[in-house]
Design a protein that fits this description.
It is a single chain. This protein is mostly beta strands. The chain folds into 2 domains: about 120 residues, Immunoglobulin-like (Sandwich); about 120 residues, Immunoglobulin-like (Sandwich), CATH 2.60.40.420. It has 6 helices and 16 strands. The protein has a 4-stranded mixed β-sheet with strand order 1-6-5-3. It has a 4-stranded mixed β-sheet with strand order 8-7-10-14. The longest helix has 8 residues. It is flat. It binds copper (II) ion (CU). Copper (II) ion binds next to loops.
């Protein structure tokens, strides 16, 4: 999780520890030159000069992203908003392999000594994504690691049920209520950031049980999230208990897009 204040410059030193694949760090919302974009164009520039921030295995690259006013919140909205970074060499496969993370930008002068928004006691981030592990770089490696099968079994890899089983309807990559760490305290100011990702099945409706959140001047308990969209909401939990936080799309419920959060 990267925190920045408007007028900052974010500096990311990225070492690609993969064995054989190029990766990058491509940010949303912030300001950058071509060498800090982390995205490949089919214009020949990357082959010669590596100016686009694509990083070969074992190599290191430094990205500089400045944070202008237009990367921060406007007045009358929460003092911080959510952006995202992800690998953008093969964007669909890279993100299906899990290479996604959050950037939080806070208004100028609204940041505490830890780089977090003043007055916000707890920040939560939830990534709603149907990770298509058939399109992960690590499908074959995972098969070999966790089963007795390999990708050489074409009958298996080409099987529709196998393919369906690899569509992981996750919140932060966890399914069926196994997501840890979602504990808040009654009466504290919680800022909850939502990230959508992936493809046309990723129409999500995060729903908090027994709580309401404030978004854009409205009080709601369900949000809309589209692929690659970003939302920032605030709430103050007022009822102690263990509550569901899940996607309200019927098929996504049965496929496991469920988690629990605790108010203590
Ligand atoms: Cu959903």
């Amino acid at each position: 999780m990267i925190h920045a204040e408007v007028c900052d410059t974010i500096k990311v030193v990225f070492k690609n520890n993969s064995d054989e694949l190029d990766y990058s760090v491509h940010p949303h919302g912030v300001f950058y030159d071509k060498d800090s974009e982390g995205a490949e164009y089919n214009d020949g520039t990357s082959a010669n000069t590596k100016v686009d921030g694509i990083v070969a295995p074992g190599q290191t690259h430094t990205y500089n992203w400045s944070v202008p006013q237009r990367a921060g919140p406007e007045p009358n909205v929460p003092s911080s908003i959510i952006w995202r970074y992800h690998s953008h060499v093969d964007s669909p496969m890279d993100t299906n392999s899990g290479l996604v993370g959050p950037i939080v930008v806070t208004s100028n002068g609204m940041v505490d000594l830890n780089g977090r928004p003043i007055g916000v006691y707890r920040e939560m981030v939830s990534l709603f994504a149907v990770s298509d592990e058939n399109s992960s770089h690590y499908l074959c490696a995972n098969l070999e690691k966790f089963t007795d099968e390999t990708c050489d079994n074409e009958e298996l890899v080409g099987n529709d049920d196998f393919a369906e089983s690899n569509l992981m309807h996750g919140i932060n990559g966890f399914v069926y209520g196994n997501l840890p760490g979602q504990t808040v305290q009654k009466g504290e100011h919680v800022r909850w950031y939502l990230i959508g990702m992936e493809t046309e099945v990723d129409l999500h409706t995060p729903h908090w049980h027994e709580n309401t959140v404030l978004w854009n001047g409205m009080r709601v308990d369900v949000m809309e999230l589209m692929p690659a969209s970003l939302k920032t909401v605030d709430f103050i939990p007022d009822n102690i208990g263990t509550w569901m936080f899940h996607c309200h799309v019927n098929y996504h419920i049965t496929a496991g897009m469920m988690s629990l959060f605790k108010v203590i």
